[in-house]
Amino acid sequence: MERKQGEVDHLERPSPLTDKERVMIQDSWAKVYQNCEEAGVAILVRLFVNFPSSKLYFSQFKHIEDTEELEHSSQLRKHAQRVMNALNTLVENIDDSEKVASVLKLVGKAHALKHKVDPVYFKILSGVILEVLGEEYPEVVTPEVGAAWTKLLATVCSGIKAVYEEVGWTQQSTSSG
Known about the structure:
This is superoxide dismutase. The chain has helices spanning 2-12, 19-33, 36-50, 67-72, 74-92, 97-114, 120-136, 143-166. It is mainly α.
């Protein structure tokens, strides 16, 4: 069992970011973060439109079907700001693994214990973030920069998944995901 667990960890744990990748992420993020609110809202609206089940975790706006109404929801805007601030903290501290781990622990514990969000949504959200950044900032998020972001977000998902396991998260559905 132990060896199998190690093999799974090895497959799911992304390789560390190179210095070049860290610089590319920080440079591209600086441009994205200038439009922090718009980018955050675009990411969450895309998430909720493409993955409606993700809205069920938000009592304040889970009933809103209209995309424009979602975009103007003050609760959605507040959550978008929190998501962007968390990403900003990760990017700003990309060289400080302890700070990154503490942010992931905070986010992971809150989403596992308080909000009971299935961890699969972090993978889904990562894909949406990559999609929106690539579309909204094509001159900044080139394929090479996108690859660095993919690696960073895989690291985030891996870290959050570890926090979920640490707090004893049990799958709420019957899927074996």
